[in-house]
User: What shape does this take?
Amino acid sequence: NTQPAQLYLYGHMHIPIVYELTGAPAPTYLSILGDWITHDTYAQLDGDSFSLWHYRSNQPPLLLQQCQLPK
Assistant: This one.
């Protein structure tokens, strides 16, 4: 018994974004992580939540996008 993927991660494409894919039987997301050199972006997977963040020195990180993954 297999479950469909809920999240696809791509790196090294230099465009930080999270897309919700249409046509899937359950909510499914595609995330392009961006890069650390130009955009200072990173991802965080926390249980059923996925977040894309922008690191800022001497300031709190800035939340760019967040999605809830189905359980």
